[in-house]
Amino acid sequence: MELNQGSKNNIALNIFKGVIISLIFTTIMLLIFAILLTYTDVSESTISTVIIIVTAISILLGSSLVNLKIKKNGLLNGAIIGASYILIIYLISSILNWRFTLNLQSIIMIAVGIVFGILGGIIGVNKR
User: Fold this and answer.
1) Which residues, given as ranges, of the chain have pLDDT below 50?
2) Dihedrals φ, ψ of 71, to 5°?
3) Whole-prediction pTM value?
4) Using CA atoms, how far apart are residues 118 and 81, in angstroms rounded to an integer?
5) Mean of the per-residue pLDDT values of the chain
6) Per-domain boundaries in the chain
7) How many CB atoms neighbour CB 124 within 10 A?
8) What gap in Å lies between CA 61 and CA 25, rounded to an integer?
9) Each residue of 25-44: pLDDT tens digit?
10) Would the CA dihedral through 92, 93, 97, 102 be positive or negative?
């Protein structure tokens, strides 16, 4: 019984690590994009698209790296990583912007987060 509880804690810790990896990668990529936006002629109309792409890649990366270690339930673990990432981002957004609302872009981001988390889980579990 104790081994089973330790295994569950280890999976939870790995899922937490996946979310942190995703958040760190997102931060780095968005800082690079901000520098490009500031010092080049990149249009501000690209911001929404870049955010969605960076989010998808970040979640895919975090989910696949962690599921390499877990080696089971890639769909579920990946979905949890994607959903947790999105939940954290939206909690931070709602705290920083009191006019924050759910809109079409928010729904797209939620779907992208869960789908790319699942894809990362599949890749991580099946990678040899």
Assistant:
1) 1-3
2) 65, 15
3) 0.89
4) 8
5) 91
6) 2-126
7) 25
8) 9
9) 999 999 999 999 999 999 99
10) negative
